[in-house]
Write a structure and sequence with these properties.
Layout (H helix, E strand, L loop, with lengths): L5 H13 L9 H32 L17 H23 L10
Length: 109
């Protein structure tokens, strides 16, 4: 029984049918095949990497949280009240200026 090389038989069959620019510098079939292979490689490797990261995060092997280091800092309420008062006075001054227009709009006069 004669041994048939499948790669050679299939390669010749598809090459003759799809690639008409076999010996030219411009071979769109070859270029598109290279683009397809590179794109497929990137898509597969990105997908595998994403599943790997998802699995690690899901099992708690990534992003360790040390509860002892997490301390809740309290807000200094007096300082916060002073800051809010400053903004309230600015808002009041602005509303006063909007309602009571100054007599001299130009400060150089």
């Amino acid at each position: 029984m004669k041994k048939v090389d499948i790669k050679k038989a299939v390669g010749i069959h598809f090459r003759k049918r799809l690639c008409h620019y076999e010996h030219n510098i411009f071979a769109p079939c070859r270029d598109w095949a290279i683009i397809f292979v590179v794109f497929s490689f990137f898509i597969i490797s990105i997908t595998v990497f994403n599943f790997h990261i998802f699995y690690q995060v899901d099992k708690g092997k990534r992003f360790f949280i040390d509860l002892a280091l997490m301390k809740a800092e309290t807000i200094n309420r007096t300082t916060l009240r002073n800051i809010i008062d400053v903004f309230d006075t600015r808002a009041n001054k602005f509303s006063d200026l909007k309602s009571n227009k100054p007599l001299n709009p130009d400060p150089t006069l």
